[in-house]
TrEMBL record:
UniProt feature, compositional bias: Basic and acidic residues: 513-522
Entry cofactors: Mg(2+)
Keywords: Coiled coil, Magnesium, Metal-binding, Nucleotide-binding, Nucleotidyltransferase, Transferase, tRNA processing
Enzyme Commission number: 2.7.7.72
UniProt name for this protein: CCA tRNA nucleotidyltransferase
InterPro entries, per the entry: Bact_CCA-adding_enz_type3_sf, HD/PDEase_dom, HD_domain, HDIG_dom, NT_sf, PolA_pol_head_dom, PolyA_RNA-bd, tRNA_adenylyltransferase
Residue ranges of every copy of the HD/PDEase domain listed in the record: 283-438
Region of interest: Disordered: 498-522
SMART domains linked to this entry: HDc
Bias kind Low complexity: ranges: 498-510
Coiled coil: 416-443
GO molecular function: CCA tRNA nucleotidyltransferase activity
Length: 522
């Protein structure tokens, strides 16, 4: 097994801890040396200018864990104007958008042509006003002063870079000790750290998800006492942290920590709200734990890495249950139409967090559709019903397949096997129909121009009504030849009293009809 958070040794075994420390440091040295073609010229340039350069923060942490990417963070005693001059000579491109905070960014291609994103920040010793998270930037004079202001000790390690490659590991705040036992702690008192920047509380939950770490008791205590401080953070920054958390390797742990500390009550209250409800099968502690199980199972079904839309849909698919719970005669409960209510709740929450329109539509669409399969029974659906299932899902169909399968959390092995077998049957039905017709694009057999020409119409609501009728016909009966489609359209139009009822109370249908009911505010 590789060294990492999941391989943390027994904290009482000092010999094993020390052995692992040495292995991780040796691995970090090797990882950093692999970037010699990028780092050595940069270290040389700073040295010749009379300044120090340190790889720092998450870059060092990830190097130690063997997961260093292409984003490299540095700190230096050189002031921004000196850093700019060095980067202008060294890098392929330079950006100074963060220069007022002492940060310059650059792009450098290594010998293999891989882009390395470089960010260099002058030592900082900032002060905060306790109102926003924006500091009054004060440049510092020491590395230790810069490290102590960072969010967590595992992110407060540094490596001094030397031109000869004999780099020096620096850890004045015990970051390696915390990493070895998988614990997140703050360099200073957590109350001060979170008061300076409340976003760090969300970052703690994100690192739980990404690294599999736990929180130091004092950090957990401070977070539970200071949850209201998160209201100082903009929704855009909250959204970024939530996405990083749900895309982590251990998102169930991160989400659970978000709820246990009470932060979720401020940024995602619908999730802890599910703790109040047991799911209808009574096989889980409550809908909350059922939803986390579905998330975990959905992750196991991801074909090519993390899928943000699928993960959000898995987590939120049952958030409509608390609002729709009703007692059944003779015992038990029902959650009728919780998928409809849940889809609207998803739309409202994700809009509040300022997600893109497409993201909102995709996640709410999956929530709205996740129960549709359960009407399939033992395969009694007609071909028309199968077409509608595919048409309503549209390009979400592959994700819907995974969500429905992940939503099977029963402990009854026979029932679980039957549900999976039934869904196999549905997928086979879809494949069989797709061999005969293009289910991915179910459209009327006549387009708008052909409808207008045949019926003698001008653009308007009547064309939309006719288009909608032909689409329904296409879903019911499959592809029609042109003569048959024209005959059916003319027959339908004649039934509309020669068009006298045109536009009267009928909804306009079209190719972009919604997957779910719209909010009243839309």
């Amino acid at each position: 097994m590789q060294d990492g958070p999941g391989a943390a040794p027994d904290p009482t075994d000092a010999a094993e801890i020390e052995a692992r420390r040495l292995r991780l440091l040796a691995g970090a040295q090797s990882t950093i040396n692999e970037l010699a073609d990028v780092l050595s010229p940069l270290a040389t340039a700073f040295s010749e200018a009379g300044h120090e350069l340190y790889l720092v923060g998450g870059s060092v942490r990830d190097a130690v864990l063997g997961r260093l990417g292409t984003d490299l963070d540095f700190t230096t005693d050189a002031r921004p104007d000196v850093v700019r001059a060095i980067l202008d000579d060294y890098a392929d491109a330079v950006w100074d958008t963060g220069i007022e905070f002492g940060t310059l960014s650059a792009l450098k291609h290594d010998d293999a042509g891989i882009e390395q994103q470089i960010e260099i920040t002058t030592y900082r010793a900032d002060t905060y006003d306790g109102v926003s998270r924006n500091p009054e930037v004060v440049f510092g004079d020491t590395l230790e002063g810069d490290l102590v202001r960072r969010d967590f000790t595992v992110n407060a390690m540094a490596v001094r870079l030397h031109p000869d490659g004999q780099h020096e590991f620096i850890d004045p705040l015990g970051g390696m000790d915390a990493l070895l036992v998988g614990v997140l702690d703050t360099p200073a008192a957590p109350e001060q750290s979170f008061s300076d920047d409340p976003l760090r509380m969300l970052r703690a939950c994100r690192f739980v998800s990404q690294l599999g770490f736990t929180l130091a008791p004092r950090v957990f205590r401070a977070m539970t006492e200071m949850t209201a401080e998160i209201d100082r953070i903009t929704v855009e920054r909250v959204r970024v942290e939530l996405d990083k958390m749900i895309l982590g390797d251990y998102p169930v742990d991160g989400i659970n920590m978000l709820c246990e500390t009470g932060l979720a009550d401020h940024v995602l209250p619908e999730v802890p709200g599910m703790k109040l409800e047991r799911d209808e099968h009574m096989q889980h502690k409550d809908v909350y734990w059922h939803s986390l199980t579905v998330l975990k199972q959905a992750i196991d079904l991801e074909p090519e890495g993390p899928d943000l839309v699928l993960r959000w849909a898995a987590l939120l698919h049952d958030i409509g249950k608390p609002a729709t719970r009703a007692a059944k005669p003779g015992g038990g409960v029902t959650f009728h139409h919780h998928e409809v209510v849940g889809a609207k709740m998803v739309r409202k929450r994700m809009r509040t967090l300022k997600y893109s329109r497409q993201m909102v539509e995709d996640v709410s669409g999956l929530v709205f559709l996740h129960l549709r399969f359960h009407g399939y029974g033992d395969g009694q659906w007609t071909d028309s019903a199968v077409r509608r299932y595919v048409s309503d899902a549209g390009d979400l169909l592959p994700r819907l397949h995974r969500l429905v399968r992940a939503d099977c959390t029963t402990r009854n092995k026979r029932r679980a096997a039957k549900l999976q077998s039934t869904y196999d049957s549905l997928e086979n039905r879809i494949a069989e129909i797709e061999e005969k017709e293009d289910l991915a694009r179910v459209r009327p057999d006549l387009d708008g121009n052909e409808i207008m020409k045949l019926l003698g119409l001008k653009p308007g609501p009547d064309v939309g009504r006719a288009w909608g009728y032909l689409k329904e016909l296409r879903l019911d009966r499959g592809p029609l030849d042109r003569d048959e489609a024209e005959a059916e359209l003319l027959r339908w139009w004649a039934e509309q009293s020669g068009g006298a009822e045109r536009g009267a109370g009928a909804e306009t249908a079209g190719p972009d009809s919604a997957r779910e009911p719209k909010d009243e505010s839309e």
